[in-house]
Amino acid sequence: MILYLINYLEFDLIANLLSYLTVRTGLALMTSFLLIILFGPFFIRKLSALQVDGQPIRTDGPQSHIVAKKGTPTMGGIIILLSIIISIIFWCNPDSLITWPVVFVMISFGLIGFIDDLKKIKNNSSNGISGKIRILFQIFVVVIFVYWIKNVLNFQNLDLLSLPFLKDVFLNMGYFSIPFIILVIVGSANAVNLTDGLDGLAIVPIMIVALTFALICYLAGNIIYSEYLYINYLPGAGELAVLCAAIIGAALGFLWYNAPPAMVFMGDTGSLALGGAIGSISILIKQELVLAIVGGIFVAEAVSVILQVGSYKLTGKRIFKMAPLHHHFEQKGVPESQIVIRFWIVAVILALIGLATLKIR
User: Fold this and answer.
1) Is the residue at 253 inside a domain?
2) Where are the alpha helices (DSSP H) in 259-335?
3) Quick check: helix, strand or coil at residue 171?
4) Residues 223-280: tens digit of each pLDDT
5) pTM, entire model
6) Buried b (16+ CB within 10 A) or exposed e, 114-137
7) How many distinct structural domains can be found in the chain?
8) Which residues pair with 160 in a beta bridge?
9) Residue 293 located in a structural domain
10) Is 325 domain-assigned?
11) Domain region containing 211
């Protein structure tokens, strides 16, 4: 929108400045960050007024949460989504069509999460909409996403899977490509949702993944860098870096209020939206397996739940004291702040490993 306005008013100097992708990327980050910093307190007061008892706490979770986190409002994801969308409208090139399928997934998953959060608050229960219904709606959204990028954007490499650490090696998945895409995006969204259980635990790894993908998107959109690093070249991918920057800024701003002790939780509204967004970006730039590395924290949390449920159903025994994984460490007596910071450290290490795959090919 800003680009159209500047060109219409013929501000050539500003137009030349904003023609640089790096400038718009930085502005997108600052815009989403400042929006949350400035308007966060207002939104938190409104959410607190509408949620007398705050987010319903799981009765089967750690007992310390029932006391420590009672009364904290949820649905902070609304603030995150609004700031990202406004920043995108301001700084993304409106002529670039590549960002809109990702925005569609992000908003749709956010809406599903919003309905889930709303039901929890109305029923004063940690149980929202049925898990099966939620997954079905998510799959429906991803099918639309696949149709969009394949038939509208004419995406050519949908069936190919890039293998990390190997140059020019792609696995042709054929008919399994669409189920795989559904697995990546739906899995990413729900893995982030499972991770969002401690103050600040999920939002920093999201920021780290978005930062990593911002760099990869920038490189993938540049034919010289992409050829040098053997990354799949995607025209216009640089605009996804602007989107990633907006996510980073929003995450930074939200952390200001979500750092222990949290003033607000992002809830399913934020976790599903952000997880869906990073999953769909990984599909477009063909770095799905790099996402599994960089987002290893989310993978570990999701796998811990799968293993726990599977083991209990098959043998009647639990592998972990409690799932997801962060609750297991809580039950072992590790302080919450220590768990969160250690998970952040692991997320940084995994991001460095993910970036190393670009060079070690």
Assistant:
1) yes
2) 267-284, 288-294, 296-315, 325-331
3) strand
4) 888 888 888 888 889 999 999 999 999 999 999 999 888 889 999 999 999 999 999 9
5) 0.91
6) bbbbbebbeeeeeebbeeeebeeb
7) 1
8) 172
9) no
10) no
11) 27-288
